[in-house]
Structures are given as structure tokens and as C-alpha cells.
Design goal:
The protein starts with 8 loop residues before the first helix and ends with a strand. The strands form two sheets. The chain has a six-stranded mixed beta sheet, with no helix packed on it. Strands 2-4-6-12-8-9 form a six-stranded mixed beta sheet, with no helix packed on it. It has two helices and twelve strands. Helices cover 22% and strands 37% of the residues. It has 176 residues and is α/β, with parallel strands linked by helices. It folds into two domains: 55 residues, no CATH class; 112 residues, no CATH class. α1 runs antiparallel to α2.
Length: 176
């Protein structure tokens, strides 16, 4: 997660103006506020407004879905894909292995769908903690680990290993 919103001019401008207004209210109107609590509250209000208005503060990279609904396509540019407080489809159906490759898909406090192609040799190591992971063979993991191998998977040949985990969320692996 990038923290660019903390360094933005809008954040610091609003934050300092509101803290100044609170200091004036405290001095002239004898209203006593805990400046620390107010600062934390203003910070959370700013984060909430940024999320609602689609501000630049929560634009992650193209492989991280944060507070939004989006489809992410697996490519050669990254080996780690994350969904945090969102809803996403991680599409690995077009990935083909020229060499063995390990991908990581994390779903945290979210709902995710991992698409794989039936013709691709894929091994999915599905793990879950306080969540739900569902494999194409019908098995469900709530705590622990389950390994699913696609019909095209053959030992000793190049394949894609996907380490998929669901933490306080749900991840469904589907064959597309």
C-alpha cells in the first residue's frame, strides 16, 4: 500500500487548518478538545472522503486491488497479486508456462475469484485462515491448506504454481 495521500498538499492543508481552528476554539471559546483525538478523527474522515470520492490516495499499483472492484490480469510484470477490502477477479487464464513459475494471490478482508484455464498446467495451493477457499474440485478450505492440480498438470513439466490465500475473506478458484 502506498502512503502518498499522507504527503499530499490537500491532506496537510486541511489538517493544519482544522487543527488551527480547534486551537482557536480552545483558546477563545474555552472549548477543550483532545487535539490528539481530533487529529486522529480528522485523519479517518479524510481517508473516508478519499475513498468515497475516488481520490488519488488509494490508487494502488495495477496488481493490488485496494478498496475497489476490479479485474486484474496475470502477466509477466508481477508475481504477487493482492485484494484488500475489495472485490476482484484475478484472471490467470491466459498465463502459459514456458518455465515453472510461482504466483502469489492474497485475498484479505475481501472477495476474490481466481480464474485458471483448463488447458494450462496449474497447481493451486489454497490456504485459508478465518476465511473460505473453494477449489474447482468442490473442496472447501476454512482453516488449513488444500492443493488442487488442473487436468493439464503433469509432474516434471513446466507449470504455474499459485499460492492462494484467503484471510478473513473468500476466494473461489474457477476454471474458465
Amino acid at each position: 500500500m502506498r502512503a502518498g495521500f499522507v504527503f499530499s498538499q490537500v491532506f496537510w492543508g486541511m489538517f493544519l487548518i482544522l487543527l488551527g481552528l480547534l486551537a482557536i476554539m480552545r483558546t477563545y471559546f474555552n472549548l477543550h478538545f483532545s487535539l490528539f483525538r481530533v487529529a486522529i478523527s480528522l485523519f479517518f474522515i479524510y481517508i473516508g472522503l478519499s475513498i468515497l470520492l475516488g481520490g488519488p490516495g488509494y490508487r494502488g499499483d495495477r496488481d493490488t486491488v485496494l478498496f475497489e472492484n476490479r479485474t486484474v490480469r496475470v502477466g509477466d510484470h508481477s508475481d504477487k497479486y493482492s485484494v484488500i477490502f475489495g472485490n476482484s477477479v484475478v484472471d490467470a487464464s491466459s498465463a502459459t508456462p514456458e518455465r515453472s513459475r510461482v504466483l502469489e494471490v492474497n485475498v484479505i478482508f475481501s472477495r476474490g475469484i481466481l480464474r485458471i484455464a483448463p488447458s494450462s498446467p496449474v497447481k493451486v495451493v489454497l490456504s485459508s485462515a478465518f476465511g473460505s477457499g473453494k477449489a474447482p474440485d468442490g473442496s472447501v478450505v476454512n482453516f488449513g491448506t488444500h492443493t488442487y492440480k488442473s487436468p493439464a498438470f503433469k509432474e516434471g513439466e513446466p507449470y504455474i504454481e499459485i499460492r492462494a490465500s484467503a484471510v478473513f475473506g473468500a476466494l473461489d478458484v474457477v476454471i474458465r
